[in-house]
TrEMBL record:
<protein>
    <submittedName>
        <fullName>NADPH-dependent F420 reductase</fullName>
    </submittedName>
</protein>
<dbReference type="InterPro" id="IPR010185">
    <property type="entry name" value="NpdG"/>
</dbReference>
<dbReference type="InterPro" id="IPR036291">
    <property type="entry name" value="NAD(P)-bd_dom_sf"/>
</dbReference>
<dbReference type="InterPro" id="IPR028939">
    <property type="entry name" value="P5C_Rdtase_cat_N"/>
</dbReference>
<feature type="domain" description="Pyrroline-5-carboxylate reductase catalytic N-terminal">
    <location>
        <begin position="12"/>
        <end position="111"/>
    </location>
</feature>
<keyword id="KW-0560">Oxidoreductase</keyword>
<dbReference type="Pfam" id="PF03807">
    <property type="entry name" value="F420_oxidored"/>
</dbReference>
<dbReference type="InterPro" id="IPR051267">
    <property type="entry name" value="STEAP_metalloreductase"/>
</dbReference>
Length: 228
């Protein structure tokens, strides 16, 4: 079990969309690091069931794990990850504006489309999912991160170390530092500051390239930044 950084001690990590592969995988890794985690879902029953399943697979070494609906998870979390499908992203955040006020919100959503030629980045009116989240949540501090991490690797108990960097985007240094610390609780992962929120589009869009790489090479590709 990793040592929890001082910046995260006593904080609860909520994962909205914690019953999907990416959300479950991130929640699993954070719990293994000793963090308290709340899984959110459309219903409290789904969130609680996912939390029970996660606890059963982790044993006693993990941090506390619980489940709720997305509103309950948003209220419970000090740092709240948004790991939901792009379709419905804006509406969900609008409904949780009050619960998320004053909190660091980490948007992990990739606005992607798929057709016969494969994945491609969608145009977003605000520029990116991260910028949309900040526009919808003026009383929250939104950071973009965890866009390019393989859900398969996060969920695989045989994978001890996830060999990738997490590109972290935001305008507030204290918040981006915190999210870099959060990324670093996952063995093998490093959080790297990658610019302000206005630069989130290309990081979200890069996921389309990684999916194409994975399909061609039958891999679970990630990103590494050199000379940092």
């Amino acid at each position: 079990m990793s040592t929890v950084p001082e910046s995260l001690q006593g904080k609860t990590i909520a994962v909205l969309g914690g019953t999907g592969p990416q959300g479950r995988g991130l929640a699993r890794r954070f719990a293994l690091a000793g963090l308290s985690v709340v899984l959110g879902s459309r219903t409290a029953e789904k969130g609680e069931a996912a939390a029970s399943e996660l606890v059963a697979g982790l044993g006693d070494a993990a941090g506390a794990v619980s489940g709720s609906d997305n509103a309950g998870a948003a209220a419970a979390g000090d740092v709240v990850l948004v790991v939901v499908p792009w379709d419905g992203h804006k509406e969900l955040l609008e409904s949780l504006r009050e619960q998320l006020a004053g909190k660091v919100v980490v948007d992990c959503v990739n606005p992607l489309g798929f057709d016969k030629q494969g994945p491609y980045a969608l145009e977003v009116e605000e520029g990116s999912a991260t910028e949309q989240a900040q526009a919808v949540l003026p009383d929250s501090t939104v950071v973009g991160a965890f866009h390019n991490v393989s859900a398969v690797l996060l969920e695989d108990p045989e994978v001890a170390s996830v060999d990738t960097d997490v590109l972290v985007l935001g305008d507030e240094r204290e918040a981006t530092d915190l999210v870099q610390d959060l990324a670093g609780t996952i063995p093998g992962v490093r959080g790297v500051y990658a610019g302000r929120r206005r630069n989130a589009h290309q990081v979200e869009a890069l996921t389309a390239n990684l999916i194409a790489i994975n399909r061609r090479y039958k891999s679970h590709a990630g990103v590494r930044v050199t000379d940092v």
